[in-house]
Amino acid sequence: MQELKENNVLQPAMPTSWYEASKPHKFCPGCGHGIILKCLGEAIDELGIKGKMVFGCDIGCSLLAWDFFDVDSVQTHHGRTTPVITGMKRANTDIIGVAYMGDGGGYAIGSQHLFNAAVRGEKITVILCNNGNYGMTGGQMAPTTLPGMKTETTPYGRDIEDSGPPTKGPEMVAAVAPEGAYVARGTISNPRQLKGFIKKGLQNQIDGNGFSFVECLSSCPTNWRTNAAQTWEFIEKDMTQYFKIGELRAPQAKEV
Ligand SMILES: Cc1ncc(C[n+]2csc(CCOP(=O)(O)OP(=O)(O)O)c2C)c(N)n1
Ligand code: SF4
């Protein structure tokens, strides 16, 4: 959808849950964070939950979203977004709490928080951006770096004999979360589907069912050192081959 701005230039319509004064956003050109946050913004709009939202972002490039939404927001220590949002939700069960983080935050330094929140079935929604590296600090190896993938700390490619295989977060969460969990993996290369997964993850919290987790395959062209075509190909061919797209746990059959 397009809308005319005051200067008569056509602009893409922004979700009303976005904070317009903070745009243009601060992510690099071609970064997937913006696509994930657009999906989240549209999902918030469509569910009509803007007034109830609390958005938490992590350290890593997700922190650039600290003023992204026109909702109560908090920026937390590395990987601690999950327990911070958990505490807020426990203190006020009326809120809809979203913890947003990178794969470094969620699967390395914050993995204990993600794992235990999932085990306890906390009624929050965690959205994790999997871009295969530590983006903000210059592209070091992350738990999700693919076998053979070159990063700043794996200049000859990730050797899984040394570091083990890449973490499959949704599979881990799906294995340990109690009944009522919603777990899915989407990709920025299919935003319509990704928005649907995020919407179901929010609806699951609205319904009070249990823990919700959506991993989003994403791009980091700055550190991957890829052009637009190479970026897309890496997500579509390499990432989705290892990280399978789809829903792993879905307690509700109803449409949202
Ligand atoms: C305790 C701690 N250790 C290390 C850092 C440095 N640090 C900041 S961002 C970051 C990487 C974040 O990567 P990821 O979570 O994958 O998010 P991305 O930037 O890729 O979106 C690291 C290691 C830190 N801020 N705090
Ligand atoms: S460094 Fe990577 S993850 Fe961070 S804003 Fe730039 S492209 Fe996005």
TrEMBL record:
Residue ranges constituting the Thiamine pyrophosphate enzyme TPP-binding domain according to the UniProt record? 68-216
Tell me what organism the protein belongs to.
Sporomusa silvacetica DSM 10669
Indicate yes or no for the key word rRNA-binding: no
Its lineage opens with: Bacteria, Bacillati, Bacillota, Negativicutes, Selenomonadales
Q: Which SUPFAM superfamilies match?
A: Thiamin diphosphate-binding fold (THDP-binding) (SSF52518)
- What sections of the sequence does the record tag as coiled-coil? none
**Pfam families according to UniProt:** TPP_enzyme_C (PF02775)
| UniProt entry keywords in alphabetical sequence | Oxidoreductase
This chain belongs to which protein, by name?
A: Thiamine pyrophosphate enzyme TPP-binding domain-containing protein
InterPro entries assigned to the protein according to its UniProt record, in alphabetical order: 2-oxoacid:Fd_oxidoreductase, THDP-binding, TPP_enzyme_TPP-bd
